[in-house]
Amino acid sequence: MSTQGFSTAVRNERGNALVMAILLVFAASAIGGMVALMSATDLKISGNQERTTEALFVAEAGMSEAIHRLGVPYPTMEVVGGQTVNISIADAPPIDPDYKAYIMMTAPGTNPNFTGNTMTAGTLQDLNGDVLQYSRDSGTADVVMVEHKWEDLDADNTRDPGEVVLYDPSRIPPENFVTGNPVDIITVTGRRGTTQRTLQAEVTRLKLVAKTLGAMYTDKALTVSGNSHFCGWNHDISIPAGTVQNACFAYHESEGHLAGVTTTGDVVDTKGSTDLDGSPTPTDTSPANPWYTLAEVLGLSNNETQEVLDNADHTSIVHPLDGVTYIQGNATMNSTLVGHGLLYITGDATINGGFKYWGLIYVEGDCNITGTPWIAGSLIVKQDADFSFGSGNCGVFYSEEAISQWVGTVMPMVTLSWRDM
């Protein structure tokens, strides 16, 4: 090979090497660019996922506030930001099919505002702190909203009272239009920057089915005397205070009746002009009758019952005696006292004069009644000894509806469905 040919070959090889080097540099640059792009994309995706997760947590916080405020009876006064306000957004009976509640990102007023069927309430958040953005301060878009679930049964596109969906776990199916508590739909949109998540849940308060066995239910033998009235027929809640036997017939429901007086096997001694009535019998003294604790009467666990008592509205006798009253020891109810709800007394109870009560009274000790007190619901007295109960001239009329309405507010809220929209 000539020297000239050899030199040409060397130069060609050097040219090829240069081209290869340039290609390698280009490939490395391309790979580096792709890696950088992928890293940036991953960071962006990671950031989006983080904001999406945070928005979900914010929406869940809004859902928790709505469920809590639905779960307390109307009104419920609490101190928020140094001001006493009504925190409840519950629809008070009778159920309004058009009812809606909005929780705004504004400070709560003393009471929620009503415009027709619509309630507007400020958030319970401290607006001076780190605020979770699950609502807005105006309008209705992206604002926490609560409304009753309904079905347009007559296809007229109008919410009628009989079209509100109720939930009763004792029925099959539990969702119906006759018995139970309304199912509420809560819609919440949580925001984190420009990212948002919308949640919708269906919730309801568990229906209370109180396990009382009579208008008067006791664990010991008792004497009923005077001009007292014990009627175990199930009465409508509208029965007027002071109604007596026979006159109560107009308020009898079609089902759900009990005995006027029930024991767990002990005798019922009647004296004077006492009036006992009920169905299928005025008195039930069967030894097969169980004794129910307060937790068993309410259908709650011991811990749930204790939580109810720990959060009682009253721990002493006051007027009006509304809500949950928890008396540790003895208690005296005087003539002018009126109340609605659950009255639980761990000691003895003395009921005087014209005391009036709608709901459930549970006494662990003895009960002595004088005067003409009147009770719609059920009176449960464990008693310390036989014949220690004194009936006076009382009237006790069993009412499942009075117990359900006035004591049912202690029942917990439950979530029936939950979806990420």
Defining traits:
single chain; 421 residues; alpha/beta; 2 domains; seven-stranded mixed beta sheet; 4 helices; 27 strands; 22% helix; elongated
Offer a quick outline of the entry.
By secondary structure, this protein is of the alpha/beta class. It has two domains: 1-207, no CATH class; 214-409, no CATH class. 22% of the residues lie in helices and 30% in strands.
* Mean pLDDT figure: 90
Shape: elongated
Structural class by SSE content: alpha/beta
Q: Tell me the number of structural domains.
A: 2
- Approximately how much beta-strand content do the residues carry? 25-35%
Helical amount among residues, as a percent range?
A: 10-25%
Put simply, the count of helices is 4
Unreliable stretches covering 5 or more consecutive residues: none
Quaternary structure of the protein: single chain
Strand count, sense and barrel status of the largest sheet are: 10 strands, parallel
Rg: 34 Å
Amino-to-carboxy terminus distance: 81 Å
Number of strands: 27
Could you walk me through the main structural features you see in this protein, from its secondary elements to its overall organization?
With 421 residues, the protein is α/β, with parallel strands linked by helices. It has two domains: 1-207, no CATH class; 214-409, no CATH class. Helix content is 22%, strand content 30%. The protein has helices spanning 3-71, 294-298, 302-310, 400-407, and strands at 77-80, 83-86, 100-104, 113-115, 118-122, 144-148, 166-167, 175-176, 181-182, 184-192, 195-205, 214-218, 222-224, 229-231, 259-262, 268-270, 275-277, 283-284, 321-327, 331-333, 338-345, 349-351, 356-363, 367-369, 374-381, 395-398, 413-420. Strands 12, 14, 15, 17, 18, 19, 21, 23, 25 and 26 form a ten-stranded parallel β-sheet that branches. It has a seven-stranded mixed β-sheet with strand order 4-5-3-6-10-11-27. The chain has a three-stranded antiparallel β-sheet with strand order 8-7-9, with no helix packed on it. A hairpin with a 2-residue loop joins strand 4 and strand 5 (118-122).
